[in-house]
Amino acid sequence: MPSPTNDTLTTIQRVLDRYIRPREEAAHIRRMIALHLESSLQHGSVREPLALVTDQKPGPASTTQGLYRQYLEALRANIKARDEFRKQTHETSHASEPEEDDSSNGGLERLQEHLAIISLEKKRERLQAIEKHLIQLSQKPAASPDFMNPKEVFRDSRSLPSIPREIVSAMTLDNTSTNAHLKDLNDQLEKHVFEAKLLLQKEEKALDKVRSQSTARPETTTDSAKLEALNKTRIELISWIENELSKASGDDADPPQGSLDNRFRASKASINEPLDMDAQLVSIKDKYDQYLEARKSLLNLVSQHPKPDIKPTKPEDMNSQNESGLSSQPTSAAQLLTPYLEQLLALSREQKGLIAQKHHLNNTISKQVKENTTALDHLAQESQLIPAHPMPGGNRVKSSDHTLSTSNDDYTQVSGRVKQWVYAAEQAKIATFETVAEKIEEGQVALEGSLQTLAEVDLLLGRKAGEGASMNEGEEDIWMAEGSSPARKHTRRGSKMVEQPAAAAKTGTVWDMVNGNLGLLRSDE
């Protein structure tokens, strides 16, 4: 809202705009007026500035005429008007002093009100911004009261299984020292719960990542694919159970405390699951326990095949035993297997050690094979030798990102990569030899051409063979004699056009007198 003070200032400025001139324009107007007055004065020039004109009335000059007389009359009128203006201003100033005080006080009050309004508007804008951001924050999920509620956080997670009996029995046995170790147990329990929550979060993140990356969708999955996946899961579960049972020892010893802690730590997954799910889990656990007991009993029966090395009894002995009332009882299977238990346990331990050693060797070899394969693939990508000389009979073996297994296929891949390098090296060597042979052949051809040219020059100059030899004896190249014979051989093996200069050289050329004995080597003569 515009203030009254601003309106007043705008009105005054609009009224005075036609009387206010810039400094340059005002100075120009003054110069023009001064020039006009100088042209009208009788004395020739204006000695005093126009702004220093006094209020005194000039005396009457009867001798003045023309413009100067008009100027004096106008000056008297101006002085008279100034006096009247001064009187009116003095009279009105005393009468309007109270009004001016009231108006000045009113203007100050309006100014203060305007400043207060501006500060209140700024404060209102700040409060509106704070309210807007608070509304936005209240709409976020974290603002809901159930955001950090454990029941809502772990609503879709699995419930915790029951505490194992071993832990319960251990806690009952240590009841005497409960007060002493209560704090430690509480800290350990909180630590396990925290670890379980972190593990659950990691698994959920991994599951979300796999779901986002997977191309298959539940609505697009067929029943046959689901059945195949269930069959594969069942087969893998059965194989894992068989491996665990084969690793287990014959006697059912108490599990160590570390395994109990691991099971207790792994059992912390979620809280507050519906009762029907708990009942189903309990029924599944009972069925699985029955399955384990049945398998253990089956394995015990399979492992216990008593083969007693007892001679058949004679009829007389049987009769004597019948007569004695069957006083001796038959030998049990446990008594027969007792001498072999120690050997079986030793063999089982040895077999476990061999399996562990085999697993370690397989891991080491697979790691080394993976490193070698990665290094060979890296070198093959950076090398220019293998693309230039590819191995025929198949494409290059592509590297795989999964973990290499110690199988014949992996060894075949490594050997195939090495064979590529060997084949490329052999091909490069052969290509180098061919290039060198071609260059030597080109040099020999060029040498024959130069010899032919020299022979033609000698013929054109009319030199004889002896003269040419004596003139060029000191300047002859040492390698020309050695290169002439292979060149002639090449001409015999090569084209027919170079063979004619070689025949002419045999009859009589400049090189016949050299005969391999250069002047440089025959310095003793």
UniProtKB/TrEMBL annotation:
Region span, Disordered: 85-107, 303-331, 386-410
Keyword Metal-binding found: no
Coiled coil: 108-140
Compositional bias of kind Polar residues: 318-331
UniProt biased composition (Basic and acidic residues): 85-97, 306-317
Keywords: Coiled coil
Protein's recorded name: Podospora anserina S mat+ genomic DNA chromosome 1, supercontig 3
Organism: Podospora anserina (strain S / ATCC MYA-4624 / DSM 980 / FGSC 10383) (Pleurage anserina)
